[in-house]
Design brief:
Helix content is 60%, strand content 0%. By secondary structure, the chain is mainly alpha-helical. It has 3 domains: 33 residues, no CATH class; 119 residues, no CATH class; 89 residues, no CATH class.
Length: 274
């Protein structure tokens, strides 16, 4: 019914010129949507994945006549950083970007985005960037934590530069980004996400006595990240000072339940050793 419902909605919009170019494209390609509810044959899915792999391999300067198996084996022999870049290029050249289910969502700065529209914009900037530099130039910048500098050098401006630089220019990733990834993954995939130990300790989940308390704590952090005032870097600073509840209460309201104060305690600040 989707095709018919889309047509009905757009035909109500008045003059043809007011319906936009997308609807004209839709009328010429409605068969694509009509088939969307039917699962692709396994071979078609496998062939599409191989084609995407080969396209990215050729784009990065690899031999164009290698089999998918040979390409995978060649990539597996490269450094972890270069493997990550290959996976990203595969996604970007397919007009996709990493989801919160992947570590690449953190590694390439998508966790710094405040809303999904920013993620889409950042994905398009990456698609432009990889056409403006060599694969080696890109990998070297990623390895040296200088991707924000590479964007700047090509005249590409991200929407949230402070958060983007704060995430990508440090040699180690703050645990707050993996907290945000876990929360975003549950929202994206509709399933519980496994949290890394640093997140469990730093943000109070290790203090939860049951699943209900942990779910309530997740809801607080989700509300924090959804808020335009929710600053991940400020949350990290509050965490290492042992003041999560004091800070997050300025962004998320109705946290007077003593349970939240207990849950949000962590081992910080750590004692200084001389």
């Amino acid at each position: 019914m989707l095709v018919d419902e889309i047509k009905t909605a757009f035909y109500k919009l008045g003059p043809e010129q007011s319906r936009g170019a997308y609807f004209a494209w839709f009328l010429q390609n409605e068969h694509i949507v009509a088939l969307a509810g039917q699962p692709l044959p396994e071979k078609a899915t496998h062939d599409a994945a191989d084609a995407a792999l080969l396209r990215a391999w050729r784009f990065t300067g690899g031999s164009g006549w290698n089999s998918a198996e040979n390409i995978k084996a060649a990539i597996a022999r490269k450094s972890v950083e270069e493997q990550n870049c290959h996976v990203l290029y595969n996604l970007l050249l397919s007009k996709w970007h990493p989801s919160p289910s992947l570590d690449l969502w953190v590694n390439f700065g998508f966790a710094s985005c405040r809303v999904q529209e920013e993620e889409m914009w950042l994905g398009r900037l990456y698609q432009r960037l990889i056409h403006m530099c060599t694969f080696k130039e890109f990998c070297d910048a990623y390895r040296a934590h200088r991707l924000p500098h590479l964007f700047d050098s090509k005249g590409l401006r991200v929407n949230n530069p402070v958060q983007f630089r704060g995430l990508l220019q440090s040699k180690w990733k703050k645990s707050v980004w993996y907290l945000k990834k876990a929360i975003a993954h549950e929202d994206f995939a509709g399933e519980e996400s496994e949290m890394v130990p640093a997140v469990l300790v730093d943000y109070g989940f290790a203090n939860g006595r049951n699943g209900s308390q942990k779910r309530r704590l997740k809801k607080v952090y989700k509300d924090f990240f959804d808020s335009p005032n929710g600053d991940p870097l400020a949350l990290h600073e509050a965490a290492i000072k042992g003041n999560i509840h004091g800070y997050i209460s300025t962004v998320v309201k109705d946290l007077r339940d003593p349970m939240f104060q207990r849950l949000m305690k962590n081992p910080y600040p750590l004692p200084e050793f001389y």
